[in-house]
Design goal:
By secondary structure, this protein is α/β, with parallel strands linked by helices. It has helices spanning 2-35, 50-65, 79-91, 108-116, 142-157, 173-186, 204-217, 229-241, 257-264, 276-291; strands at 39-44, 69-74, 96-99, 121-124, 136-140, 161-167, 192-199, 223-226, 249-251, 270-273, 300-303, 306-309, 316-317, 320-321. The longest helix is centred in the N-terminal third of the chain and has 34 residues, at 2-35. The chain starts with a helix and ends with a strand.
Length: 323
């Protein structure tokens, strides 16, 4: 009888100990799960341009402020590399992707892959050609911005003269939105003649080379309209090397630091000021809200672009208004 009672007591002790251990392990497991840090991947078309570096840094800073680990991926304007970054982000357990696409059409498949994996994608500045792949696309209103820029262009040119247009990446919708906005105004003036239109891929060095080549065939030009500020600075360098910088007006688009300084110095006529900080922070905030349960976001959120000239340059700093 005594042996039986002792065994029963011993068995109860074992059961209690096992139950306690299971409860403890379960508690530890839940604790680890709840404390696993959430992560946001920031995939950028290229970091070979200060504008995109600024966009990436602000997206990362806002995400960190909201409590997320972050990593910036540089696609180097290469859709294949961009695809590798998406694979890496999905395999590594990133909870959301803040995305600056390389190609409006070619990048769609990457966004769809993330969506299928349950990872939301928020596009910044550049869009993808899909109405439902990205959770939201926060984009500069490039078309309207270039309408305003074109009106100033017409005024500065006094409605006549020969000009060159330097386009950005042909696979980026911003390239065509800016060009179309510009031409919606300028093409109404018969005295303004476009003597050449060529892509320089939003790249400063390529813009310099392209314009040098164009000037060999068209030495008498009066203006250069550039799809971004990097190309505007490249165009200015080509003009300066040819001794024509004081005779040819250059127009850009972005609001980059060197162009803001160049407008002050009278080297660049005007630019369209984008607001990358607004786009980057909005994308991070939207991603945070999504991960906390919100699912209703605007498919496209336009961010206004402002005309910057020598007349109002004191109101602006690099990549935005003075604070």
């Amino acid at each position: 009888m005594i042996n039986y009672l002792w065994q029963l007591k011993s068995n109860r002790g074992i059961v209690f100990s096992l139950a306690f251990c299971l409860l403890f392990l379960g508690s530890c497991s839940n604790k680890n799960t709840s404390e696993t840090p959430k992560k946001m991947a920031i995939v950028i078309s290229t970091l070979n341009n200060p504008w995109f570096v600024f966009l990436a840094d602000n997206a990362a800073a806002k995400a960190k402020e909201l409590g997320y680990e972050t990593k910036i991926f540089d696609s180097q304007n290469n859709t294949a590399l961009e695809s590798d970054h998406f694979e890496n982000a999905l395999v590594s357990g990133y909870n959301a992707i803040l995305f600056n696409p390389t190609d409006a059409e070619g990048s769609v498949v990457n966004v769809q892959k993330a969506k299928a994996a349950g990872v939301p994608v928020f596009c910044m500045d550049r869009e993808v050609n899909s109405a439902d792949a990205a959770t939201s696309q926060i984009l500069s209103d490039s078309y309207s911005g270039c309408v305003s820029l074109a009106k100033y262009f017409v005024k500065q040119m006094k409605k006549k003269g020969n000009y060159v247009e330097l386009l950005g990446l042909v696979g980026d919708n911003n390239t065509w939105a800016r060009s179309q906005g510009f031409h919606s105004v300028v093409d109404n003036y018969a005295g303004l003649k476009m003597v050449a239109q060529q892509s320089a891929d939003f790249d400063r060095n390529k813009a310099m080379d392209v314009l040098e080549s164009i000037m060999q065939a068209h030495p008498n030009i009066d203006a250069v309209f550039c799809g971004n500020d990097a190309m505007a600075m490249g165009a200015y360098q080509a003009l300066a090397a040819a001794g024509k910088a004081d005779k040819v007006k250059v127009f850009g688009f972005d609001g980059a630091a060197d162009v803001i300084d160049a407008i002050k110095d009278g080297k660049i006529a005007a630019t369209g000021m984008q607001f990358p900080k607004v786009m980057a922070q909005t994308a991070a905030i939207y991603a945070d809200q999504y991960l906390k349960g919100k699912k209703d976001f605007p498919q496209k959120l336009p961010v206004a672009v402002e005309l910057v000239t020598k007349e109002n340059i004191e109101d602006y700093a690099a990549f935005g208004k003075k604070e």
